[in-house]
Write a structure and sequence with these properties.
The complex is a heterodimer of chains A (501) and B (41).
Chain A (H helix, E strand, L loop, with lengths): L6 H31 L3 H25 L7 H25 L6 H12 L15 H25 L4 H8 L11 H29 L4 H16 L17 H15 L2 H8 L4 H5 L1 H24 L5 H16 L11 H4 L4 H12 L12 H19 L9 E4 L1 E4 L2 H26 L6 H12 L15 H16 L2 H15 L3
Antiparallel strand pairs in A: 1-2
Helix pairs in contact in A: 1-2, 1-3, 1-5, 2-3, 3-4, 3-5, 3-20, 4-5, 4-19, 5-7, 5-8, 6-17, 7-8, 7-9, 8-9, 9-13, 12-13, 12-15, 12-16, 13-15, 15-18, 16-17, 17-18, 17-19, 18-19
Chain B lengths: L1 H39 L1
The chains are: A mainly alpha (501), B mainly alpha (41).
């Protein structure tokens, strides 16, 4: 039986949630300034009003709940779970006031999609969204993306047994010895890529015929969406809008950088290039990306949609990488996945979305480490069966250093893998209940939401049913939290009601 | 301090270079596979 949390516990949780609100106000302040400079008065009003609400919440908690008591493990998990659920509520205010969404639920959905780096969108008339609101929309990817990485690496990775369940790899140590230094390194890497990536995209969009201020805006927004594996784009046609191999090329590099764990970035920044060849996540990701790419390309070739090398590469590889990295950029209209891509190629895209990128990155999905450890665990079991009974086979894997594969790590990895699969199926079943879509469509959309990808065959739409929209919203939240924090929140609520005093 | 900064710049450049190399390598393999599949079908 759990202990019932008292007012002091709730105060600590509320105070830290208030700090998240203040952070969201800061997030709105930048685009609000842009709106004022560009004289986009409607957007400026919406962003300032949103920031005012967030500041009010932050200041209220500061006034009523101020505490110097540190967060313990259970407070931390509850704060994370609630922050990712309630933060988007505050982040939704400017979107709601922008007049480009149909009701507050749509605004919450859009904000959840942005902060969880999913990229599914219900914004209406996206091509006429103001510059400042467009920037705000893409900034939610950056804030949510870097935020979840810091949470994952700093808070969960230090959590002993529960941390092991979260990352499912026995990575007990952080990248660097303390939270502040870890956060600083993450923002240093992101800042470095921000400069290089935006300059690269600026050159590419200029070559594609979009120059000047508008080109800079496209480049910056595309950077946030690509590096944070988000998937929002400045136009309704996503990357197909640019018709540019140069834009697609820069985005491929940024998607690869974004789907790599910051642990791997750290190793590479230390000059340990051997990690690229030995790391279990790199190997797992490379194998699954190439396998799903081959299946997608064969499917496209057999369907006769794209027969040339260039077509297969630009459509097939880009889409699979976009799906696998959790980005969700599209180089083809979503409805074509079902009408023109045959049945094999969309299946490969769904598998790629489901598998996801590396743990400790902004990518969603099952994650390469879990796929790698589950596969290694399977091989280990086969070896154990085939070898003589007295033999004690030892299987190792490389992640920063050579590690022995232990049963708890494999069990945790396969448990989370199973939870993801169940979540994908549950979302698909809810979609099927409406009787309007085939299982291929509902599975595609469900996996895209729960794996925080953002590719869509068209079910996600401003006119979608409310219950399905709420289902996808919860899937994005669950997928982002990778279940543990959400379960902890449920446990906390139960202990509030039934806990021992 | 100056040496630290120089080392920092070098390490970040190395890190980015390896990520770019990985992306290019992956793309090159995918392009070769696309060529093979286009030729076979």
């Amino acid at each position: 039986m759990f202990l019932r949390p008292d007012g002091r516990d709730l105060g600590i949780i509320g105070y830290h949630l208030g700090r998240v609100a203040t952070g969201l106000a800061l997030l709105m302040a930048g685009p609000a300034l842009v709106a004022l400079v560009l004289r986009e008065w409607n957007a400026a009003t919406a962003l300032v009003a949103g920031a005012a609400v967030a500041v009010a919440v932050g200041q209220f908690t500061e006034w009523r709940l101020f505490t110097r008591e540190p967060l313990n493990w259970s407070h931390g998990t509850v704060v994370v779970a609630l922050a990712w659920l309630l933060g988007p509520l505050l982040a939704a205010v400017p979107l709601f006031l922008s007049g480009h969404v149909d009701g507050f639920l749509d605004a919450w959905f859009e904000a959840m999609s942005g902060l969880t780096t999913s990229g599914l969108s219900v914004v209406q008339d996206l091509d006429h969204l103001s510059y400042s609101m467009g920037l705000y929309r893409h900034l939610t990817h950056f804030a949510g993306g870097q935020g979840i990485v810091i949470v994952a690496l700093s808070l969960f990775a230090a959590g002993g047994g529960a941390g092991t369940l979260y990352v499912a790899e026995g990575r007990e140590e952080r990248i660097l010895p303390n939270v502040v230094r870890t956060a600083r390194f993450i923002f240093r890497v992101a800042g470095f890529y921000l400069v290089l990536g935006t300059l690269g995209l600026l050159a590419a969009t200029w070559a594609a015929g979009i120059g000047g201020w508008r080109g800079s805006w496209h480049a910056l927004n595309l950077f946030f969406a690509a590096f944070d594996t988000g998937g929002f784009s400045p136009t309704s046609q996503s990357i197909a809008y640019y018709h540019s191999p140069a834009v697609e090329g820069v985005i491929v590099v940024l998607m690869v950088a974004g789907t790599m764990s910051f642990g791997l970035h750290h190793q590479l920044w230390l000059g340990r290039r051997g990690e690229l060849a030995r790391n279990v996540e790199v190997r797992s990701l490379a194998v699954t990306v190439l396998l799903t790419t081959v299946v997608a390309m064969v499917g496209l070739a057999l369907a006769g949609t794209y027969a040339s090398t260039g077509g297969l590469f630009r459509k097939g590889f880009f889409t699979v990488l976009s799906a696998h990295s959790g980005t969700g950029f599209a180089v083809t209209d979503g409805s074509l996945f079902l009408s023109d891509w045959g049945s094999l190629a969309p299946a490969a895209v769904v598998i790629a979305m489901a598998l996801g990128g590396m743990a400790g990155s902004t990518a969603g999905g099952i994650k390469a480490i879990r796929v790698g450890l589950t596969a290694k665990g399977l091989v280990h079991e086969v070896r154990r069966v085939l070898l003589p009974e007295a033999a004690r086979p030892v299987t190792t894997y490389h992640s920063g250093r050579r590690r022995i594969l232990r049963t708890p790590a494999v069990r945790a990895a396969s448990t989370i893998l199973l939870l993801y699969v169940l979540t994908y199926l549950a979302g698909a079943l809810v979609g099927l209940a409406y009787g309007r879509w085939a299982v291929t469509e509902t599975l595609f959309e469900s996996v895209s939401a729960a794996a925080n990808v953002g590719l869509s065959v068209g079910i996600v739409d401003p006119a979608m049913p409310i219950a399905l929209q709420v289902t996808y919203l919860l899937q994005m939240w669950l997928g982002r939290l990778e279940f543990l924090a959400a379960f902890a929140l449920v446990g906390y609520v139960v202990s509030l009601v039934r806990g021992r005093t | 301090m100056r040496l630290d900064r120089a080392a920092g710049r070098r390490s970040s450049a190395t890190g980015v270079a390896w990520v770019v190399a990985a992306a290019l390598g992956l793309s090159a393999v995918a392009l070769a596979l696309a060529g093979l599949i286009a030729w076979l079908t």
